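notes to self, project folder thing:

trying the whole complex as one job this time. last attempt i did each chain seperately and stitching them together was a nightmare. two parts in total, labels are on each line so i dont mix them up again. if this works i'll redo the older ones the same way
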Amino acid sequence: MDETIAEFIKRTILKIPMNELTTILKAWDFLSENQLQTVNFRQRKESVVQHLIHLCEEKHASISDAAQLDIIYMQFHQHQKVWDVFQMSKGPGEDVDLFDMKQFKNSFKKILQRALKNVTVSFRETEENAVWIRIAWGTQYTKPNQYKPTYVVYYSQTPYAFTSSSMLRRNTPLLGQALTIASKHHQIVKMDLRSRYLDSLKAIVFKQYNQTFETHNSTTPLQERSLGLDINMDSRIIHENIVEKERVQRITQETFGDYPQPQLEFAQYKLETKFKSGLNGSILAEREEPLRCLIKFSSPHLLEALKSLAPAGIADAPLSPLLTCIPNKRMNYFKIRDK
Amino acid sequence: MDNGSSVLAHLERLETQVSRSHKQSEELQSVQAQEGALGTKIHKLRRLRDELRAAVRHRRASVKACIANVEPNQTVEINEQEALEEKLENVKAILQAYHFTGLSGKLTSRGVCVCISTAFEGNLLDSYFVDLVIQKPLRIHHHSVPVFIPLEEIAAKYLQTNIQHFLFSLCEYLNAYSGRKYQADRLQSDFAALLTGPLQRNPLCNLLSFTYKLDPGGQSFPFCARLLYKDLTATLPTDVTVTCQGVEVLSTSWEEQRASHETLFCTKPLHQVFASFTRKGEKLDMSLVS
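result (full assembly):
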Protein backbone atom coordinates (compact mmCIF):
# COMPACT_ATOMS: atom_id res chain seq x y z
CA MET A 1 0.00 0.00 0.00
CA ASP A 2 1.34 3.39 -1.01
CA GLU A 3 2.68 5.50 1.85
CA THR A 4 0.55 8.44 0.79
CA ILE A 5 -2.59 6.30 0.87
CA ALA A 6 -1.66 4.96 4.30
CA GLU A 7 -1.07 8.49 5.55
CA PHE A 8 -4.36 9.68 4.11
CA ILE A 9 -6.35 6.81 5.66
CA LYS A 10 -4.57 7.38 8.96
CA ARG A 11 -5.46 11.09 9.02
CA THR A 12 -9.05 10.34 8.06
CA ILE A 13 -9.49 7.76 10.83
CA LEU A 14 -7.86 10.13 13.35
CA LYS A 15 -10.57 12.70 12.58
CA ILE A 16 -13.33 10.21 13.48
CA PRO A 17 -14.52 10.48 17.11
CA MET A 18 -14.11 7.20 19.03
CA ASN A 19 -17.84 6.77 19.59
CA GLU A 20 -18.49 6.83 15.83
CA LEU A 21 -15.56 4.68 14.78
CA THR A 22 -17.21 1.27 14.67
CA THR A 23 -20.30 2.63 12.91
CA ILE A 24 -18.24 4.30 10.22
CA LEU A 25 -15.97 1.29 9.74
CA LYS A 26 -19.04 -0.93 9.35
CA ALA A 27 -20.53 1.45 6.77
CA TRP A 28 -17.21 1.44 4.92
CA ASP A 29 -17.44 -2.33 4.69
CA PHE A 30 -13.80 -2.65 3.60
CA LEU A 31 -12.35 -4.47 6.60
CA SER A 32 -14.06 -7.78 7.31
CA GLU A 33 -15.92 -8.68 10.50
CA ASN A 34 -13.08 -10.98 11.52
CA GLN A 35 -10.51 -8.27 11.04
CA LEU A 36 -12.51 -5.75 13.05
CA GLN A 37 -12.94 -8.24 15.87
CA THR A 38 -9.17 -8.40 16.29
CA VAL A 39 -9.05 -4.70 17.11
CA ASN A 40 -9.23 -3.58 20.72
CA PHE A 41 -11.18 -0.34 20.54
CA ARG A 42 -10.58 0.42 24.20
CA GLN A 43 -6.95 1.27 23.65
CA ARG A 44 -5.59 4.72 23.16
CA LYS A 45 -6.66 6.12 19.79
CA GLU A 46 -3.17 6.09 18.28
CA SER A 47 -2.85 2.35 18.92
CA VAL A 48 -6.28 1.63 17.45
CA VAL A 49 -5.42 3.66 14.35
CA GLN A 50 -2.10 1.88 13.90
CA HIS A 51 -3.80 -1.50 14.12
CA LEU A 52 -6.42 -0.43 11.58
CA ILE A 53 -3.79 0.83 9.13
CA HIS A 54 -2.04 -2.51 9.44
CA LEU A 55 -5.29 -4.29 8.56
CA CYS A 56 -5.82 -1.95 5.58
CA GLU A 57 -2.34 -2.81 4.36
CA GLU A 58 -3.13 -6.49 4.62
CA LYS A 59 -6.09 -5.89 2.34
CA HIS A 60 -4.19 -3.61 -0.04
CA ALA A 61 -6.41 -0.59 0.30
CA SER A 62 -6.43 1.59 -2.81
CA ILE A 63 -7.02 5.31 -3.18
CA SER A 64 -10.62 4.65 -4.16
CA ASP A 65 -11.18 2.67 -0.93
CA ALA A 66 -9.68 5.57 1.01
CA ALA A 67 -11.90 8.00 -0.87
CA GLN A 68 -14.98 5.97 0.11
CA LEU A 69 -14.00 6.24 3.77
CA ASP A 70 -13.59 9.98 3.34
CA ILE A 71 -17.05 10.30 1.80
CA ILE A 72 -18.61 8.36 4.68
CA TYR A 73 -16.83 10.60 7.19
CA MET A 74 -18.23 13.63 5.37
CA GLN A 75 -21.73 12.17 5.38
CA PHE A 76 -21.54 11.92 9.16
CA HIS A 77 -20.04 15.41 9.53
CA GLN A 78 -21.88 17.41 6.88
CA HIS A 79 -22.01 20.54 9.02
CA GLN A 80 -18.25 20.96 8.86
CA LYS A 81 -18.60 22.31 5.35
CA VAL A 82 -20.65 25.16 3.98
CA TRP A 83 -22.84 24.00 1.11
CA ASP A 84 -23.83 25.90 -2.04
CA VAL A 85 -26.82 25.05 -4.19
CA PHE A 86 -26.74 24.80 -7.96
CA GLN A 87 -29.76 24.63 -10.21
CA MET A 88 -29.59 23.18 -13.71
CA SER A 89 -32.03 23.66 -16.54
CA LYS A 90 -32.81 21.98 -19.78
CA GLY A 91 -33.71 23.56 -23.08
CA PRO A 92 -37.40 23.68 -24.01
CA GLY A 93 -38.91 20.53 -25.49
CA GLU A 94 -36.22 18.26 -24.14
CA ASP A 95 -36.62 14.51 -24.04
CA VAL A 96 -37.82 12.82 -20.91
CA ASP A 97 -35.05 12.29 -18.38
CA LEU A 98 -34.08 8.64 -18.57
CA PHE A 99 -31.41 8.81 -15.93
CA ASP A 100 -28.93 5.97 -16.06
CA MET A 101 -26.57 6.01 -13.08
CA LYS A 102 -23.82 4.09 -14.88
CA GLN A 103 -23.89 6.47 -17.84
CA PHE A 104 -23.87 9.48 -15.52
CA LYS A 105 -20.85 8.25 -13.57
CA ASN A 106 -18.89 7.38 -16.69
CA SER A 107 -19.70 10.65 -18.39
CA PHE A 108 -18.90 12.75 -15.31
CA LYS A 109 -15.57 11.05 -14.76
CA LYS A 110 -14.59 11.25 -18.43
CA ILE A 111 -15.22 14.99 -18.64
CA LEU A 112 -13.05 15.71 -15.61
CA GLN A 113 -10.32 13.30 -16.62
CA ARG A 114 -10.15 14.76 -20.13
CA ALA A 115 -9.72 18.28 -18.78
CA LEU A 116 -7.31 17.53 -15.94
CA LYS A 117 -5.25 14.46 -16.36
CA ASN A 118 -4.96 13.98 -12.61
CA VAL A 119 -8.21 13.83 -10.72
CA THR A 120 -9.73 11.30 -8.31
CA VAL A 121 -13.46 10.88 -8.73
CA SER A 122 -15.46 8.65 -6.35
CA PHE A 123 -19.19 7.99 -6.11
CA ARG A 124 -21.38 6.74 -3.28
CA GLU A 125 -25.14 6.24 -3.75
CA THR A 126 -27.56 6.82 -0.89
CA GLU A 127 -31.03 5.48 -0.30
CA GLU A 128 -32.72 8.82 -0.84
CA ASN A 129 -31.98 8.80 -4.60
CA ALA A 130 -28.92 10.98 -4.10
CA VAL A 131 -25.37 10.33 -5.21
CA TRP A 132 -22.38 11.72 -3.29
CA ILE A 133 -19.46 12.59 -5.52
CA ARG A 134 -15.97 13.27 -4.19
CA ILE A 135 -13.44 15.02 -6.41
CA ALA A 136 -9.80 15.39 -5.46
CA TRP A 137 -8.28 17.93 -7.83
CA GLY A 138 -4.89 17.75 -9.50
CA THR A 139 -3.53 19.38 -12.62
CA GLN A 140 -1.85 18.16 -15.78
CA TYR A 141 1.39 17.97 -13.84
CA THR A 142 0.51 17.47 -10.17
CA LYS A 143 -1.16 14.59 -8.42
CA PRO A 144 -4.58 15.12 -6.90
CA ASN A 145 -4.65 16.78 -3.50
CA GLN A 146 -6.61 14.32 -1.37
CA TYR A 147 -6.84 16.74 1.53
CA LYS A 148 -8.89 19.44 -0.22
CA PRO A 149 -11.58 17.59 -2.12
CA THR A 150 -14.91 18.94 -3.28
CA TYR A 151 -18.07 17.06 -2.40
CA VAL A 152 -21.19 17.14 -4.55
CA VAL A 153 -24.57 15.73 -3.60
CA TYR A 154 -26.70 15.30 -6.71
CA TYR A 155 -30.36 14.28 -6.62
CA SER A 156 -30.85 12.42 -9.87
CA GLN A 157 -33.83 13.34 -12.05
CA THR A 158 -33.99 16.73 -10.35
CA PRO A 159 -32.18 19.88 -11.47
CA TYR A 160 -30.45 20.38 -8.10
CA ALA A 161 -26.97 19.67 -6.80
CA PHE A 162 -25.36 20.72 -3.54
CA THR A 163 -21.61 21.31 -3.42
CA SER A 164 -19.24 21.98 -0.56
CA SER A 165 -17.77 25.43 -0.95
CA SER A 166 -14.33 24.81 -2.22
CA MET A 167 -11.22 26.83 -1.70
CA LEU A 168 -10.15 25.91 -5.22
CA ARG A 169 -12.53 28.27 -7.00
CA ARG A 170 -10.92 27.82 -10.38
CA ASN A 171 -12.36 24.33 -10.69
CA THR A 172 -15.95 25.40 -10.18
CA PRO A 173 -16.74 26.05 -13.88
CA LEU A 174 -15.34 22.66 -14.84
CA LEU A 175 -17.35 20.98 -12.10
CA GLY A 176 -20.48 22.75 -13.32
CA GLN A 177 -19.82 21.66 -16.85
CA ALA A 178 -19.27 18.03 -15.89
CA LEU A 179 -22.43 17.95 -13.81
CA THR A 180 -24.55 19.60 -16.50
CA ILE A 181 -23.39 17.44 -19.37
CA ALA A 182 -23.42 14.16 -17.47
CA SER A 183 -26.97 14.78 -16.23
CA LYS A 184 -28.10 15.88 -19.69
CA HIS A 185 -28.90 19.48 -18.80
CA HIS A 186 -27.95 22.64 -20.68
CA GLN A 187 -27.24 25.28 -18.11
CA ILE A 188 -26.21 25.56 -14.51
CA VAL A 189 -26.71 28.50 -12.19
CA LYS A 190 -25.65 29.03 -8.61
CA MET A 191 -28.54 29.84 -6.30
CA ASP A 192 -28.28 32.54 -3.64
CA LEU A 193 -28.66 29.96 -0.91
CA ARG A 194 -25.93 28.73 1.36
CA SER A 195 -25.77 26.93 4.71
CA ARG A 196 -23.92 24.31 6.71
CA TYR A 197 -27.06 22.27 7.13
CA LEU A 198 -27.50 20.11 4.07
CA ASP A 199 -30.82 18.70 5.29
CA SER A 200 -32.26 22.18 5.70
CA LEU A 201 -31.03 23.25 2.27
CA LYS A 202 -32.69 20.19 0.79
CA ALA A 203 -35.94 20.95 2.63
CA ILE A 204 -35.93 24.54 1.35
CA VAL A 205 -34.96 23.73 -2.23
CA PHE A 206 -37.48 20.90 -2.59
CA LYS A 207 -40.09 22.82 -0.58
CA GLN A 208 -40.42 19.96 1.89
CA TYR A 209 -40.01 21.83 5.16
CA ASN A 210 -43.68 21.65 5.93
CA GLN A 211 -45.04 18.15 5.83
CA THR A 212 -48.27 18.63 7.74
CA PHE A 213 -51.38 18.49 5.58
CA GLU A 214 -55.03 18.92 6.52
CA THR A 215 -57.16 15.90 5.70
CA HIS A 216 -60.53 14.57 6.75
CA ASN A 217 -58.79 11.53 8.15
CA SER A 218 -56.96 13.39 10.88
CA THR A 219 -58.60 12.68 14.21
CA THR A 220 -56.77 15.36 16.17
CA PRO A 221 -58.07 18.83 15.41
CA LEU A 222 -55.51 21.49 14.55
CA GLN A 223 -54.79 23.21 17.79
CA GLU A 224 -53.33 26.61 18.01
CA ARG A 225 -50.11 26.35 19.84
CA SER A 226 -49.26 29.31 21.95
CA LEU A 227 -45.78 30.47 21.13
CA GLY A 228 -44.48 30.18 24.68
CA LEU A 229 -47.04 32.62 26.03
CA ASP A 230 -49.15 31.19 28.81
CA ILE A 231 -52.00 33.63 28.62
CA ASN A 232 -54.44 31.67 30.73
CA MET A 233 -52.08 31.22 33.64
CA ASP A 234 -54.11 32.77 36.39
CA SER A 235 -57.58 34.21 36.09
CA ARG A 236 -56.68 36.97 38.51
CA ILE A 237 -54.14 38.29 36.02
CA ILE A 238 -55.56 40.33 33.20
CA HIS A 239 -53.37 41.08 30.24
CA GLU A 240 -53.96 44.64 29.18
CA ASN A 241 -53.00 44.09 25.60
CA ILE A 242 -54.33 40.59 25.10
CA VAL A 243 -55.94 41.53 21.80
CA GLU A 244 -52.61 42.69 20.45
CA LYS A 245 -50.84 39.59 21.77
CA GLU A 246 -53.34 37.33 20.04
CA ARG A 247 -52.99 39.28 16.80
CA VAL A 248 -49.25 38.87 16.91
CA GLN A 249 -49.58 35.15 17.58
CA ARG A 250 -52.01 34.69 14.71
CA ILE A 251 -49.84 36.56 12.23
CA THR A 252 -46.73 34.66 13.32
CA GLN A 253 -48.52 31.37 12.94
CA GLU A 254 -49.77 32.31 9.48
CA THR A 255 -46.32 33.37 8.35
CA PHE A 256 -44.17 30.67 9.88
CA GLY A 257 -46.60 27.82 10.38
CA ASP A 258 -46.48 25.23 13.14
CA TYR A 259 -43.70 23.12 11.73
CA PRO A 260 -39.99 23.28 12.69
CA GLN A 261 -38.17 25.84 10.60
CA PRO A 262 -35.28 24.73 8.38
CA GLN A 263 -31.92 25.65 9.90
CA LEU A 264 -29.89 28.48 8.42
CA GLU A 265 -27.06 30.40 10.06
CA PHE A 266 -27.29 33.74 8.29
CA ALA A 267 -29.11 36.00 5.88
CA GLN A 268 -27.17 38.66 4.02
CA TYR A 269 -28.62 41.77 2.40
CA LYS A 270 -26.53 43.86 0.03
CA LEU A 271 -28.21 47.23 -0.23
CA GLU A 272 -27.59 49.50 -3.16
CA THR A 273 -30.30 51.98 -2.52
CA LYS A 274 -30.50 55.70 -2.20
CA PHE A 275 -30.64 56.99 1.31
CA LYS A 276 -34.19 57.72 2.45
CA SER A 277 -34.75 60.10 5.29
CA GLY A 278 -37.70 61.89 6.81
CA LEU A 279 -35.57 64.96 7.51
CA ASN A 280 -35.31 67.26 4.58
CA GLY A 281 -32.03 68.79 3.68
CA SER A 282 -29.80 66.12 5.20
CA ILE A 283 -26.51 65.64 3.39
CA LEU A 284 -27.03 61.99 2.74
CA ALA A 285 -30.46 62.50 1.24
CA GLU A 286 -28.94 64.70 -1.46
CA ARG A 287 -26.58 62.04 -2.68
CA GLU A 288 -27.37 60.85 -6.17
CA GLU A 289 -25.38 57.65 -5.93
CA PRO A 290 -26.87 54.77 -4.04
CA LEU A 291 -25.36 53.90 -0.72
CA ARG A 292 -23.73 50.56 -0.52
CA CYS A 293 -24.12 48.67 2.66
CA LEU A 294 -24.14 45.10 3.80
CA ILE A 295 -26.45 43.82 6.50
CA LYS A 296 -25.93 40.35 7.87
CA PHE A 297 -28.15 38.56 10.33
CA SER A 298 -26.45 35.64 12.11
CA SER A 299 -27.90 33.06 14.41
CA PRO A 300 -27.44 29.39 15.29
CA HIS A 301 -30.99 28.99 13.96
CA LEU A 302 -31.95 32.10 12.02
CA LEU A 303 -35.52 31.27 11.03
CA GLU A 304 -36.56 30.21 14.53
CA ALA A 305 -35.02 33.42 15.84
CA LEU A 306 -37.01 35.48 13.32
CA LYS A 307 -40.15 33.59 14.25
CA SER A 308 -39.74 34.53 17.90
CA LEU A 309 -39.08 38.25 17.27
CA ALA A 310 -42.68 39.45 17.19
CA PRO A 311 -44.00 37.30 20.08
CA ALA A 312 -41.05 38.46 22.19
CA GLY A 313 -42.00 42.07 21.50
CA ILE A 314 -38.72 42.93 19.81
CA ALA A 315 -40.25 43.59 16.40
CA ASP A 316 -43.64 44.50 15.05
CA ALA A 317 -45.81 41.91 13.39
CA PRO A 318 -45.96 41.38 10.48
CA LEU A 319 -42.21 41.19 9.92
CA SER A 320 -40.66 42.64 6.83
CA PRO A 321 -41.25 40.37 3.84
CA LEU A 322 -37.52 40.57 3.15
CA LEU A 323 -37.06 38.43 6.24
CA THR A 324 -40.04 36.12 5.92
CA CYS A 325 -39.55 35.28 2.24
CA ILE A 326 -36.31 33.36 2.83
CA PRO A 327 -37.63 29.76 2.67
CA ASN A 328 -40.26 30.61 0.08
CA LYS A 329 -37.84 32.32 -2.31
CA ARG A 330 -35.09 29.82 -1.50
CA MET A 331 -32.58 32.61 -0.93
CA ASN A 332 -30.53 33.90 1.96
CA TYR A 333 -28.35 36.26 -0.07
CA PHE A 334 -30.19 39.32 -1.30
CA LYS A 335 -29.25 42.27 -3.50
CA ILE A 336 -31.61 45.13 -3.01
CA ARG A 337 -31.69 47.96 -5.46
CA ASP A 338 -34.07 50.85 -5.93
CA LYS A 339 -36.76 49.94 -8.42
CA MET B 1 -132.80 -28.90 112.51
CA ASP B 2 -132.48 -29.73 108.78
CA ASN B 3 -134.54 -26.74 108.07
CA GLY B 4 -131.89 -24.32 109.48
CA SER B 5 -128.98 -25.75 107.49
CA SER B 6 -130.98 -26.05 104.41
CA VAL B 7 -131.98 -22.45 104.72
CA LEU B 8 -128.39 -21.46 105.17
CA ALA B 9 -127.38 -23.77 102.45
CA HIS B 10 -130.08 -22.28 100.32
CA LEU B 11 -128.89 -18.85 101.15
CA GLU B 12 -125.36 -19.92 100.38
CA ARG B 13 -126.56 -21.32 97.18
CA LEU B 14 -128.33 -18.12 96.32
CA GLU B 15 -125.25 -16.13 97.25
CA THR B 16 -123.00 -18.10 95.05
CA GLN B 17 -125.53 -17.82 92.31
CA VAL B 18 -125.55 -14.12 92.69
CA SER B 19 -121.78 -13.90 92.79
CA ARG B 20 -121.57 -16.17 89.85
CA SER B 21 -124.03 -14.14 87.91
CA HIS B 22 -122.15 -11.01 88.95
CA LYS B 23 -118.99 -12.52 87.73
CA GLN B 24 -120.63 -13.50 84.55
CA SER B 25 -122.02 -10.08 84.06
CA GLU B 26 -118.63 -8.63 84.86
CA GLU B 27 -117.00 -10.89 82.42
CA LEU B 28 -119.66 -10.09 79.98
CA GLN B 29 -119.03 -6.43 80.55
CA SER B 30 -115.31 -6.73 80.08
CA VAL B 31 -115.78 -8.78 77.00
CA GLN B 32 -118.17 -6.24 75.74
CA ALA B 33 -115.73 -3.54 76.56
CA GLN B 34 -113.00 -5.42 74.73
CA GLU B 35 -115.33 -5.93 71.86
CA GLY B 36 -116.02 -2.26 71.80
CA ALA B 37 -112.35 -1.40 71.86
CA LEU B 38 -111.57 -3.82 69.08
CA GLY B 39 -114.45 -2.47 67.14
CA THR B 40 -113.12 1.05 67.29
CA LYS B 41 -109.67 -0.20 66.39
CA ILE B 42 -111.10 -1.89 63.35
CA HIS B 43 -112.79 1.31 62.38
CA LYS B 44 -109.59 3.24 62.78
CA LEU B 45 -107.62 0.78 60.69
CA ARG B 46 -110.29 0.75 58.06
CA ARG B 47 -110.16 4.48 57.88
CA LEU B 48 -106.38 4.48 57.64
CA ARG B 49 -106.51 1.89 54.93
CA ASP B 50 -108.93 3.93 52.94
CA GLU B 51 -106.84 7.03 53.35
CA LEU B 52 -103.72 5.25 52.15
CA ARG B 53 -105.51 3.79 49.20
CA ALA B 54 -106.75 7.19 48.26
CA ALA B 55 -103.25 8.61 48.60
CA VAL B 56 -101.79 5.91 46.38
CA ARG B 57 -104.42 6.51 43.79
CA HIS B 58 -103.72 10.19 43.91
CA ARG B 59 -99.99 9.70 43.52
CA ARG B 60 -100.38 7.39 40.59
CA ALA B 61 -102.66 9.78 38.88
CA SER B 62 -100.31 12.71 39.37
CA VAL B 63 -97.26 10.71 38.17
CA LYS B 64 -99.16 9.68 35.12
CA ALA B 65 -100.05 13.26 34.52
CA CYS B 66 -96.36 14.25 34.91
CA ILE B 67 -95.17 11.65 32.48
CA ALA B 68 -97.91 12.59 30.15
CA ASN B 69 -96.67 16.18 30.26
CA VAL B 70 -92.89 15.64 30.19
CA GLU B 71 -92.14 12.45 28.25
CA PRO B 72 -93.10 13.47 24.73
CA ASN B 73 -90.68 16.50 24.67
CA GLN B 74 -87.69 14.73 26.13
CA THR B 75 -87.84 11.81 23.76
CA VAL B 76 -88.13 14.17 20.81
CA GLU B 77 -85.00 16.04 21.89
CA ILE B 78 -83.01 12.84 22.36
CA ASN B 79 -84.10 11.52 19.01
CA GLU B 80 -83.19 14.75 17.22
CA GLN B 81 -79.77 14.81 18.80
CA GLU B 82 -79.09 11.19 17.93
CA ALA B 83 -80.25 11.76 14.40
CA LEU B 84 -77.91 14.74 14.00
CA GLU B 85 -74.97 12.84 15.43
CA GLU B 86 -75.65 9.97 13.11
CA LYS B 87 -75.80 12.33 10.14
CA LEU B 88 -72.54 13.95 11.20
CA GLU B 89 -70.80 10.58 11.49
CA ASN B 90 -72.14 9.62 8.07
CA VAL B 91 -70.88 12.78 6.44
CA LYS B 92 -67.47 12.41 8.12
CA ALA B 93 -67.26 8.84 6.88
CA ILE B 94 -68.18 9.86 3.35
CA LEU B 95 -65.55 12.61 3.38
CA GLN B 96 -62.96 10.11 4.54
CA ALA B 97 -64.08 7.63 1.93
CA TYR B 98 -63.52 10.16 -0.85
CA HIS B 99 -59.88 9.30 -0.30
CA PHE B 100 -60.55 6.10 -2.25
CA THR B 101 -61.64 7.93 -5.38
CA GLY B 102 -58.02 8.96 -5.85
CA LEU B 103 -58.61 12.70 -5.69
CA SER B 104 -59.99 14.35 -2.59
CA GLY B 105 -59.50 17.58 -0.74
CA LYS B 106 -60.21 19.61 2.35
CA LEU B 107 -60.77 23.33 2.57
CA THR B 108 -58.14 25.17 4.57
CA SER B 109 -58.03 28.68 5.95
CA ARG B 110 -56.14 29.90 2.90
CA GLY B 111 -57.36 27.57 0.17
CA VAL B 112 -57.56 23.85 -0.28
CA CYS B 113 -55.38 20.86 0.52
CA VAL B 114 -55.68 18.33 -2.28
CA CYS B 115 -54.91 14.66 -1.67
CA ILE B 116 -53.95 12.41 -4.56
CA SER B 117 -54.18 8.75 -3.61
CA THR B 118 -52.47 6.53 -6.12
CA ALA B 119 -53.36 2.97 -6.99
CA PHE B 120 -52.27 0.24 -9.37
CA GLU B 121 -54.12 -2.96 -10.24
CA GLY B 122 -56.56 -2.35 -7.42
CA ASN B 123 -53.86 -1.88 -4.80
CA LEU B 124 -53.99 1.39 -2.90
CA LEU B 125 -50.50 2.91 -2.89
CA ASP B 126 -48.97 6.13 -1.58
CA SER B 127 -50.87 9.39 -1.15
CA TYR B 128 -49.47 12.78 -2.06
CA PHE B 129 -50.64 16.21 -0.95
CA VAL B 130 -50.67 19.62 -2.60
CA ASP B 131 -51.65 22.59 -0.47
CA LEU B 132 -52.97 25.40 -2.67
CA VAL B 133 -53.37 29.04 -1.71
CA ILE B 134 -56.40 30.57 -3.38
CA GLN B 135 -55.09 33.96 -4.38
CA LYS B 136 -54.40 35.75 -7.63
CA PRO B 137 -52.15 34.17 -8.79
CA LEU B 138 -52.98 30.69 -7.53
CA ARG B 139 -49.92 29.17 -5.92
CA ILE B 140 -48.69 26.04 -4.25
CA HIS B 141 -47.96 26.62 -0.58
CA HIS B 142 -46.33 23.30 0.18
CA HIS B 143 -46.58 19.71 -1.00
CA SER B 144 -45.37 16.17 -0.53
CA VAL B 145 -44.84 15.34 -4.20
CA PRO B 146 -41.47 13.59 -4.78
CA VAL B 147 -38.76 15.91 -6.04
CA PHE B 148 -38.27 14.14 -9.34
CA ILE B 149 -41.88 14.51 -10.47
CA PRO B 150 -41.98 17.60 -12.74
CA LEU B 151 -44.47 19.46 -10.52
CA GLU B 152 -43.04 22.89 -11.38
CA GLU B 153 -43.45 22.18 -15.09
CA ILE B 154 -47.03 20.96 -14.77
CA ALA B 155 -47.90 23.95 -12.56
CA ALA B 156 -46.31 26.36 -15.04
CA LYS B 157 -48.44 24.91 -17.81
CA TYR B 158 -51.85 24.57 -16.18
CA LEU B 159 -52.15 25.91 -12.67
CA GLN B 160 -53.18 29.46 -13.56
CA THR B 161 -55.39 28.69 -16.54
CA ASN B 162 -57.07 25.37 -15.87
CA ILE B 163 -56.84 23.94 -12.38
CA GLN B 164 -58.76 20.81 -13.32
CA HIS B 165 -56.21 20.02 -15.99
CA PHE B 166 -53.41 20.68 -13.50
CA LEU B 167 -54.85 18.21 -11.00
CA PHE B 168 -55.65 15.65 -13.67
CA SER B 169 -52.18 15.85 -15.16
CA LEU B 170 -50.55 15.58 -11.73
CA CYS B 171 -52.75 12.57 -10.95
CA GLU B 172 -51.61 10.92 -14.17
CA TYR B 173 -47.94 11.44 -13.41
CA LEU B 174 -48.22 10.31 -9.79
CA ASN B 175 -50.34 7.24 -10.53
CA ALA B 176 -48.00 6.18 -13.33
CA TYR B 177 -44.96 6.68 -11.10
CA SER B 178 -46.62 4.71 -8.30
CA GLY B 179 -47.47 1.92 -10.71
CA ARG B 180 -43.95 1.69 -12.12
CA LYS B 181 -42.48 1.77 -8.64
CA TYR B 182 -44.87 -0.98 -7.56
CA GLN B 183 -43.79 -3.20 -10.45
CA ALA B 184 -40.09 -2.65 -9.71
CA ASP B 185 -40.59 -3.30 -6.00
CA ARG B 186 -42.55 -6.52 -6.72
CA LEU B 187 -39.85 -7.71 -9.08
CA GLN B 188 -37.17 -7.17 -6.44
CA SER B 189 -39.12 -8.76 -3.62
CA ASP B 190 -41.06 -11.62 -5.24
CA PHE B 191 -38.80 -12.74 -8.09
CA ALA B 192 -35.30 -12.23 -6.70
CA ALA B 193 -34.60 -15.90 -7.38
CA LEU B 194 -34.85 -15.36 -11.13
CA LEU B 195 -32.59 -12.28 -11.15
CA THR B 196 -28.90 -12.91 -11.60
CA GLY B 197 -27.86 -9.42 -10.53
CA PRO B 198 -29.26 -6.37 -8.78
CA LEU B 199 -32.09 -4.44 -10.41
CA GLN B 200 -30.82 -1.10 -11.73
CA ARG B 201 -33.44 1.58 -11.34
CA ASN B 202 -33.69 5.36 -11.17
CA PRO B 203 -35.87 7.58 -8.94
CA LEU B 204 -38.72 7.88 -11.48
CA CYS B 205 -38.53 4.14 -12.17
CA ASN B 206 -38.52 4.97 -15.87
CA LEU B 207 -35.33 3.13 -16.71
CA LEU B 208 -35.00 -0.44 -15.48
CA SER B 209 -32.12 -2.72 -16.27
CA PHE B 210 -31.72 -6.30 -15.06
CA THR B 211 -30.43 -9.75 -15.95
CA TYR B 212 -32.51 -12.86 -15.41
CA LYS B 213 -32.60 -16.57 -16.02
CA LEU B 214 -35.66 -18.73 -16.58
CA ASP B 215 -34.02 -21.67 -14.83
CA PRO B 216 -32.01 -20.23 -11.95
CA GLY B 217 -29.85 -23.26 -11.30
CA GLY B 218 -29.55 -24.29 -14.90
CA GLN B 219 -27.01 -23.95 -17.67
CA SER B 220 -28.87 -21.54 -19.91
CA PHE B 221 -27.47 -18.09 -20.63
CA PRO B 222 -28.99 -15.18 -18.77
CA PHE B 223 -31.10 -12.60 -20.55
CA CYS B 224 -30.42 -8.86 -20.23
CA ALA B 225 -33.43 -6.61 -20.28
CA ARG B 226 -33.49 -2.84 -20.56
CA LEU B 227 -36.87 -1.16 -20.16
CA LEU B 228 -37.37 2.50 -21.04
CA TYR B 229 -40.53 4.34 -20.04
CA LYS B 230 -40.41 7.48 -22.14
CA ASP B 231 -44.03 8.26 -21.41
CA LEU B 232 -44.11 9.36 -17.79
CA THR B 233 -47.88 8.97 -17.69
CA ALA B 234 -47.71 5.27 -18.57
CA THR B 235 -46.99 2.18 -16.52
CA LEU B 236 -45.81 0.08 -19.48
CA PRO B 237 -42.46 0.67 -21.18
CA THR B 238 -42.15 2.41 -24.53
CA ASP B 239 -38.87 0.71 -25.50
CA VAL B 240 -37.72 -2.77 -24.54
CA THR B 241 -34.45 -4.43 -25.47
CA VAL B 242 -33.77 -8.03 -24.48
CA THR B 243 -30.39 -9.50 -25.28
CA CYS B 244 -28.71 -12.76 -24.44
CA GLN B 245 -25.53 -12.32 -22.43
CA GLY B 246 -22.40 -13.93 -23.70
CA VAL B 247 -23.82 -15.32 -26.92
CA GLU B 248 -23.09 -13.79 -30.30
CA VAL B 249 -25.62 -15.63 -32.41
CA LEU B 250 -28.71 -17.24 -30.93
CA SER B 251 -30.21 -20.50 -32.03
CA THR B 252 -33.71 -20.23 -33.48
CA SER B 253 -35.46 -21.37 -30.30
CA TRP B 254 -33.49 -18.92 -28.16
CA GLU B 255 -34.16 -16.13 -30.65
CA GLU B 256 -37.88 -16.92 -30.49
CA GLN B 257 -37.80 -16.80 -26.73
CA ARG B 258 -35.87 -13.55 -26.70
CA ALA B 259 -38.35 -11.90 -29.08
CA SER B 260 -41.33 -13.21 -27.14
CA HIS B 261 -39.88 -11.80 -23.93
CA GLU B 262 -39.51 -8.40 -25.55
CA THR B 263 -43.16 -8.47 -26.52
CA LEU B 264 -44.22 -9.64 -23.07
CA PHE B 265 -42.39 -6.81 -21.33
CA CYS B 266 -44.04 -4.29 -23.66
CA THR B 267 -47.54 -5.52 -23.10
CA LYS B 268 -47.76 -6.78 -19.53
CA PRO B 269 -46.72 -5.35 -16.15
CA LEU B 270 -43.29 -6.47 -15.10
CA HIS B 271 -44.21 -8.66 -12.13
CA GLN B 272 -46.93 -10.40 -14.14
CA VAL B 273 -44.39 -11.31 -16.81
CA PHE B 274 -42.16 -12.84 -14.18
CA ALA B 275 -45.12 -14.62 -12.61
CA SER B 276 -45.79 -16.24 -15.99
CA PHE B 277 -42.10 -17.22 -16.15
CA THR B 278 -42.38 -19.06 -12.83
CA ARG B 279 -45.59 -20.76 -13.93
CA LYS B 280 -43.93 -21.91 -17.14
CA GLY B 281 -40.99 -23.08 -15.07
CA GLU B 282 -43.29 -25.16 -12.92
CA LYS B 283 -44.88 -26.64 -16.00
CA LEU B 284 -41.45 -27.53 -17.33
CA ASP B 285 -40.54 -29.19 -14.04
CA MET B 286 -43.73 -31.23 -14.14
CA SER B 287 -42.97 -32.39 -17.66
CA LEU B 288 -39.47 -33.46 -16.61
CA VAL B 289 -40.82 -35.45 -13.67
CA SER B 290 -43.44 -37.29 -15.68
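what i see at first glance: The first helix of chain A runs from residue 3 to 15.
need to look closer tmrw
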